[in-house]
Amino acid sequence: MSQNLNLKKFSFLVYGLGSTGESIIKFFKKNSISNFYVWDDKKKLKKEFDLKNLDIKKVIKEVDYIVLSPGISLKEALYKKELSKFKKKIITDIDLLYLSNSNFKSIVVTGSNGKSTTCKLIYHLLQKNKYKVALGGNIGTPVLNLKIKKNTFFVIEASSFQLSHSKFIKPNYAILLNITNDHLDWHGSMGEYVRSKFKIFKLQTKNNFALINKNFVKAFNKKKYLSKLITPKFTSYEKIKLLINNNYLSSKINDENMSFVFSLSKLLKIKDKRFISSMKTFIGLPHRHEIFLKKKNITFINDSKATSFQATNLALAFSKNIFWIVGGRPKKNDKINLNNVKNNVIKSYIIGKHTNFFKKRLKNKIKFSITKNLKNSIISIIKDSKPFRNVNTTILLSPGAASFDQFKNFETRGDQFKKMSRLYAKKLI
Questions:
Q1: Residue 1 pLDDT more than 50?
Q2: Region 179-196: what's the mean pLDDT?
Q3: How wide is the angle at C-alpha 229 spanned by C-alphas 224 and 233, nearest 5°?
Q4: Span 290-428: which CATH code?
Q5: Tell me: the pLDDT tens digits for 139-157?
Q6: Which tens digits make up the pLDDT trace of 29-82?
Q7: CA 394 to CA 367: how far, in whole Å?
Q8: Residue 130 burial by CB count (10 A; 0-12/13-18/19+): exposed, middle or buried?
């Protein structure tokens, strides 16, 4: 662990007052750290925290550290020039965790796809094997809200936003699942995006472990990181998979995640029998290839979390005879390659405000119609699927794009899909 610092000796600016910002303030007060300022651009919060008279430019210049809330882009922040000038001061809530504590071990997971599921799998595995364990980070609970007890394992999901500004993160076990084109509008380039992901290895020592996708071994070795390199392989997990008997984990879509979790279990000396029994009781996360309804020969799958086409491609590869709902706000430089999956799709239904984007990419490859919203899509699919009732078919929401053009978030999109699917399946099937 990083050496504990007496944080009372330093001054801080908490920039951004979302859930993470609030957890930082609570942490400061709990630990009697009084030398800090807070800032947010929102008018409501300015009034609530009496920020009208705060000389924010002066504060940015004078404080020792700027604790930036995840998601705030230096390109779009109100005081982007000042923040960029003092970029070296910027840290995250995860950094504060490592700077203030040494009484825990950590497993940090990052990657473009599968982070949350992998974190949940690890958390479940450790719980079932009587480890003291806490789960937080990008998966939901800010890390500073987690209770630290002696010998606690912290399972932390780290987004590229968090890692981009992180300076003190030092996991005992660092896991890099994969890297695909994602969040390039935020990072500016693929190089910067990759650089942020690799930060989880930077401060590791020879006593730590790096579990890394085989595609990035060369880059890892080039950087000459000190941690012990582990490259999880599906072949090692394959025999175990056959014994788990869990419908959610039986799909190929979880093979990569499970290969990493199985490799970790070996490092933690969890016996295969215990691993198998633990995984048998795992329940998958909502909105991630979630099979929520089966009606006659039709399987309904909610994969709303697939906000990039790389994630959607995995879902399309898993099923046959798919009626596929696609669309939303596309991500910068996201590439759509249908060569390996187009034969699995009977028809696609385009929703959202960017229909032309998807129309151009599906044209002459997959039959489609523009339905604009989920309700119209489901009604159309149930009608179109009638000739296929004698074969197993799949109604799949896997948008391949962000939800913000029509929904608050991917959870809202997924919940609406499930609600309307149940309604119209009941009425029309």
A1: no
A2: 68
A3: 140
A4: 3.90.190.20
A5: 989 999 998 888 899 999 9
A6: 999 999 999 998 776 666 666 666 789 999 999 999 999 998 788 888 889 999
A7: 16
A8: exposed
Cα–Cα separations (whole angstroms), residue 423 to 141, 303, 379, 400, 426: 33, 18, 10, 24, 5
Dihedral, 266, 270, 273, 274 alpha carbons, nearest 10: -140
Give the pLDDT confidence score for residue 201 in this predicted structure: 96
Does 347 have pLDDT greater than 70?
A: yes
Q: Tell me the two tokens of residue 400.
A: 């391949």
What SS3 state is found at 62? helix
Taking phi first (over 0 means left), then psi (-120 to 50 degrees means alpha), and beta for anything else, what does residue 50 get? left
Least Cα distance to 349 among 376, 309, 329 occurs for 376
How far is C-alpha 414 from the chain's CA centre? 16
Using an 8 Å Cβ cutoff, are 149 and 79 in contact? no
What is the DSSP secondary-structure string of 347-364?
EEEEESS-HHHHHHHHTT
Distance in angstroms (rounded) separating the CA atoms of residues 322 and 300: 10
Mean pLDDT of the chain: 91
Domain coordinates in residue numbering, the chain: 7-91, 95-280, 290-428
Token reading at 121? 């799998």
Model confidence pLDDT, tens digit, residues 95-138? 999 999 888 999 999 998 899 999 999 999 999 999 999 999 98
pTM of the model: 0.88
The b/e string for 14-51 (b: 16+ C-beta within 10 A; e otherwise) is bbbbeebbbbbbebbeeeebeebbbbbbeeebeeebeb
How deeply is 383 buried, as exposed, middle or buried, from its count of CB atoms within 10 A (0-12, 13-18, 19+)?
Answer: exposed
Rounded Cα–Cα distance for residues 188 and 94 (Å): 23
User: Which region among 44-48, 212-216, 336-340, 367-371 has the lowest average model confidence (pLDDT)?
Assistant: 44-48
Tell me if 360 sits within 8 A of 265, measured CB to CB: no
Tokens describing residue 66: 């700027």
Please report the sign of the dihedral spanned by the C-alpha atoms of residue 284, residue 285, residue 289, residue 293.
Answer: positive
Cα Rg of the chain (Å, integer) = 23
Long-range contacts formed by 387-392: CB under 8 A, 24+ apart: 388/297, 388/321, 388/346, 389/296, 389/297, 389/298, 390/297, 391/297, 391/321, 392/297, 392/299, 392/320, 392/321
Instruction: Give Cβ neighbours of residue 52 (< 8 Å, ≥ 6 apart).
Output: 46
Fold of the domain built from segment(s) 7-91: Rossmann fold (3.40.50)
Q: Which CATH class is domain 95-280?
A: alpha beta
